[in-house]
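Holo prediction. Input below; ligand is MNI.
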Amino acid sequence: MKRLRWVAGAVVLAVLAGGGVAAATRDAPRPAGRYVTDDDGRALILHGFNTASSAKSTPDGLPELSEADVEREYRDMGTNFVRFLLQWRAVEPSPGTYDMKYLDKVAERIAWYRTRGYHVMLDMHQDLWGNGITPSKVAGNGAPQWATFMDGLPVAAGQPMWELYYLEPGVIRAFDNFWNTTGGHPDLMDRYARAWKAVADRFKDDPAVIGYDLMNEPWGGSVQGAAFETGPLAALYRKTIAEIRSVDPDSWIFLEPQAVGVNWGLPSALPYFDDPRGGPARIAFAPHLYPLPLDLGDDYTAGSREWTDRTLGWWRENILRTAERMKAPILLGEFGLDMTRPGAADLVERILDLTDENAMGRAYWSRDPGSWGPYDKGRAGPLVGVYARPYPRAVGGVPVRVVWDEKAVKLTITFDANETGPTEVYLPAATFPKGGEASLGTAAWDAGKRILTVTTKTSGRLDLVITPA
Ligand SMILES: CN(C)c1ccc(C(=O)NC[C@H]2N[C@H](CO)[C@@H](O)[C@@H]2O)cc1
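Structure of the complex:
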């Protein structure tokens, strides 16, 4: 099976290499320079986790999480963002019936984040369609049973890799029926869009909810690539944007490309989407990043590091190109790996630098306990030290670039100032034990929250340099 992965990967890498060589001869597209903004219009740098994969399999569809977990995460890493996993099966347990008790329990957990200054993005999560794809419910999450139509086609249980379930006839048919590729279920996409309307209606006035990630890692079934992204996927997004905007004019809407290929660096064909909110658009692009060499089982060391860095370059160029087409800011909705593998911390640093330099928010996959996450068996792992990184939580202007120089212990925030408010910077204890100093403006240090708030003049391009107090 590992050989199969390698063959598949070699083909994709060859395609990327071809594209990469061609792309290398063109100017790299400039960073989109667009940001998700808060209600005051300040640019937000979203830095957080996916919370949590456990929601996929809990009977109530809620992540295994306590308020103490949120408190520990803030104390250890100063994050300001969470991609919070929802399950359609829990939102709409039967057609047209929305479970407000479930949404109230989600609201309780959002409050844990709100009191600590977090922004919450609600993610309608699915993998493999839903847990109804096998009788024993061993695979899949997201969609309810009543929306799962496999038309009697088989799904062989016991797949050696979970991704292979996507290629099973029954799973492809479940997706084909949802996208109405079969013509047999024209109602399902409307139901999905109306489920989002119910969620948006419940959370539209919650100041912590920054927005909605409409579908996790969409899969087109028998329709793939540009035909899928510009066809049924774009249709679903337009339907859902309209339903959400009918009740919620202000929350951000986050749109993902198809996962296959784009996660690794291949281009997405996702088109521009109009935002009918009657003001500046609040549509963001939310890809994922899983470098193929690592997906194929390699580590970020030696020769594979060079290959991985090359695929990161392709991923960056293709993502920036799609974001430019969409006129949208970028949130990296998922990236992650087994932190016990050689080179893992270096890769996370590399991706944090990439997101800083290219105006992207980021959510690590995932917050769950274990070797991928920040905590394993209750103890802090290597990710905590890497993710406790100085960063501007909010910027009183349009950021041009953010550079964290660990050797010089210097954070430089270059931005075009405007009247949107002060710049707030998180400074971890490891590198800023006594807080920080600002090279311009007036600064106030909140030792409890570890946030330096810098008030600067409100026009012109500024280079704000933060150094240890
Ligand atoms: C064949 N298809 C459609 C496919 C293959 C592989 C992934 C994947 O690895 N995704 C990366 C991570 N994202 C999910 C949660 O969103 C995690 O379970 C994966 O590790 C996705 C789709």
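The radius of gyration is 22 Å. That is the main takeaway for now.
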